[in-house]
Amino acid sequence: MSRRDETYVFGIHAAASALRDRPAALVELRLAAPVANPRLQRLRETADAAGVPVLEVERSVLDRCAAGVRHQGVMAVLRMGKRGGKGARKAAAEEALETLLSGIAEPPFLLVLDGVQDPHNLGACLRSAAAAGVHAVIVPKDRAAGLTPTVRKVACGAAERLPLFQVTNLARTLRRLQQQGLWIVGTDAAATQSLYETDLGGPLALVLGAEEKGLRRLTRESCDFLVAIPMAGAMESLNVSVAAGICLFEARRQRRSV
Fold this sequence. Notes:
Elements (H helix, E strand, L loop, with lengths): L5 E5 L1 H10 L4 E7 L5 H13 L3 E4 L1 H8 L7 E6 L12 E2 L1 H8 L6 E6 L4 H14 L3 E5 L8 H7 L2 H4 L2 E4 L2 H10 L3 E5 L5 E2 L9 E6 L7 H5 L3 E4 L11 H17 L2
Parallel strand pairs: 2-3, 5-8, 6-7, 6-11, 7-8, 9-11, 9-12, 10-12
Antiparallel strand pairs: 1-4, 2-4
């Protein structure tokens, strides 16, 4: 278990991203002994060059710390950052969202996840969001996954680069975004409007619902439009991280052409 002022990042990709993007936040790098894997050896060389202490530990130590997360023989210990600091990124408070939006020079592009509880899905959504150029991700504070070690590992570094905001009342946050000029576009398998026939090029908050349940009623009612991903065959829905990837990159395609 990590200390409250530290967090763990597991996996080769996630550790490499932490070394590349936030080396000042790393307390140490722990590698499973003996270090024979060439990729782990390169990690050690990178850590040495950055002045990050490297410890070789028994694999059982990493197994215990990872608590089921596939660690690939590596664990990075990161110092949690304060606002504006160089530590591992924490989930941000709702109050900081307006400040972030005011500092964006282009039309804002946000991803909102309504109660996604599976950390693997949240991590995959963060990874897709970062790749698609999203400025921030918004999730509810309750009954939703946060920035756990599993999320950070699956996100492959996106959790350290992309702001994630945890809000108390998601419907209220969506209304505030509307007041700031953003269009709120929700996804719903029953919607009659196609994703590909919707203008996603302006100030946008794209909203996806939880696994199996979809958008909650108040969230759905807070959207300006509801859209569906056209699908062939008898499939009724997609995994939320797959749906997020499709929607995010359709938005990116449109935004690159305006």
